[in-house]
Please model this.
Amino acid sequence: MNPQEVRRLLEQVRTGRLKTDQALARLRHLPFEDLGFAKIDHHRALRLGYPEVVFGQGKRPAQVSGIVRRMLGVRGSRTNILVTRADARVYAAVRRVAPRARFHPLSGSIAIRRNRAITGKGLILIVSAGTSDIPVAEEALVTAELMGNRVEAVYDVGVAGLHRLMEHRAKLAAARVAICVAGMEGALPSVVAGLVGVPVIAVPTSTGYGASLGGVAALLGMLNSCAANVAVVNIDNGFGAGCFASVINHL
Model:
């Protein structure tokens, strides 16, 4: 449940449209529900405005679908549900309990959209350095969209051809938050941050040759950015970037 849903519930009790016992039944799984193999944090939407996100990697398909089934079973809830790092087998299991689920194969994200309201204040712009960085950028995009934000993407505009980036100056200027996804040497976030006056969330990717050390070179380059408006998330963590951008965009 999110704050708006709790407010509606309390209003229904106040006006007599809902009995107290019925309201208690809807709240019985707060703050979490224990499935044995997982403890679903139903209280998270109340604290943060969005529900717990299911990390699919390492979980059996039946475990992921079981978690999704219980999240869908929260009566009265219209919050969106996101599964990250999933594959086709996990998607097949989830779709059996959520026929409207949509699979984004590039990022491995599964989106169950039940609410299309845009609650973020401005535009989140996602910029990728290269085509190889798009899967991580797509994870950030799906995450930010499901959390109620207007999101646009600009792909393959890395520092090897800065004229490609400059073509999108208007979009950069319009963004309230920018997410920059880059591998190799990870220089793109510093360039973008030098062009805008908003928070820039840098996402290092594991794209690159041997000395990139699986994204460590990009991570260190971003951490050492001379631009003061850059914050850095973990390697390939598109979800973390999308979530952080959403929090900023709702402030």
